[in-house]
Amino acid sequence: METETITQVEHDVPFKLDVYKGLTSSPKEISSKYFYDDEGSLIFQEITQMEEYYPTRLEMDVFKRNKSAIVERVEAEHVDVVELGAGDGHKTKVLLEEMVSKKKLTRFFPIDISEKAIRELLKNIGASERLEVRPVVGDFFKGLDQVVSHSTNPKLALFLGSNIGNFGPEERISFLTNLKQALRPGDMLLIGFDLKKDINKLMNAYDDPHGVTKRFNLNLLKRINRELGGNFDLESFHHHAFYNPRKGAMESSLLSLKEQDVYIEEYGVSFHFDAFEPILLEHSYKFTMTEINTMAKACGFFTVENFFDSTNGYVNSLWKVNSEAHFH
Ligand SMILES: C[S@@+](CC[C@H](N)C(=O)[O-])C[C@H]1O[C@@H](n2cnc3c(N)ncnc32)[C@H](O)[C@@H]1O
């Protein structure tokens, strides 16, 4: 394997500014992208190894069952694979190995906001593969700009782990439309969607009995303490996850268990919490096939094929940039 040094691109909005905006808005809200500092990325790895966190297992099942069919559907002879929010890459490895064995793959560009995640990925996607890896640390689109300026081959973009579920309905359309614009006609996107399912299964995954998801959510307050000099008392916040059927999403919040003021040194001010006031942290939307097909069309893609796990609880949908819908 040929591995180049990690490219760093600057973040769109710094953590400090976003946290201030989030704690002064009503309701208080902080983007889930800030979960992934070094400690958060390691806790997320723990989550993916839990029996209860089925999305990782189901997506891995999709790949093991369908890797050959997926790679056969990628038409171009040599492709560059670019993965948005790659994490530790342990599932991606299954696809990459298949592509290498079919001599389809030219280079792999994993993009992640977390340097720790990229370092874990580099341990997984290891020296035995005949593969050039060009890792990028940064936000999705800053990272993608960096990649497209270095890659002229046809591309297969990957957006796995039902990462798309973290975006609300409007945000996901603009995200995918922007992604389509960064790609070229004929380029492809393999995107993972968690399908709507039994609520108990969802609850177990997002509020597990071992307390790992709780630790993951509370780590965001620890991160504020560490990086911004906050004095959040973790014991006085409660991890609350529930399924909102009107939205079709799991929602995770931290609730202040009492009325309190939290001082953050970087801003030199305290933030007031009423008893049981939430900080909204994450939505994980769940989808139906009708919603997925409509989304593909609305964003300028057409569906090549859908690949399911053996329980039909998860789908990886292979989309192609629709040349007629490409305006530049
Ligand atoms: C839910 S995890 C999924 C990881 C991996 N794709 C998987 O399927 O296991 C989300 C990943 O996206 C990264 N991420 C979140 N927001 C991001 C952003 N705005 N730009 C780049 N990476 C981001 C996180 O650091 C994390 O590694």
Considering the chains and any ligands shown, give keywords for the structure.
binds S-adenosylmethionine, 328 residues, Rossmann fold, four-stranded mixed β-sheet, 16 strands, 10 helices, globular, 2 domains
Description:
The protein is α/β, with parallel strands linked by helices. The protein folds into two domains: 7-31 and 202-285, no CATH class; 49-197 and 289-325, Rossmann fold, CATH 3.40.50.150. It is 36% helix and 26% strand. The chain is built from ten helices and 16 strands. It has helices at residues 15-24, 38-48, 54-73, 92-101, 115-124, 140-148, 169-182, 199-206, 212-228, 289-298; strands at residues 2-3, 7-8, 28-29, 79-84, 105-112, 132-133, 136-137, 155-159, 188-194, 237-244, 249-256, 260-264, 269-273, 278-285, 301-308, 314-321. The strands form three sheets. Strands 1, 2, 4, 5, 6, 7, 8, 9, 15 and 16 form a ten-stranded mixed sheet that branches. Strand 15 and strand 16 form a beta hairpin. Helix 2 runs antiparallel to helix 9 and helix 3 (54-73) runs parallel beside helix 4. The longest helix is centred in the N-terminal third of the chain and has 20 residues, at 54-73. The two termini are 35 Å apart. 41% of the residues are buried. S-adenosylmethionine binds next to helix 2 and strand 5. S-adenosylmethionine is lined by residues 33, 36, 44, 48, 56, 85-87, 91, 111-114, 117, 139-140, 160-161, 163.
Please summarize what this structure is.
The strands form three sheets. Strands 1, 2, 4, 5, 6, 7, 8, 9, 15 and 16 form a ten-stranded mixed beta sheet that branches. This protein has a four-stranded mixed beta sheet with strand order 3-14-11-10.
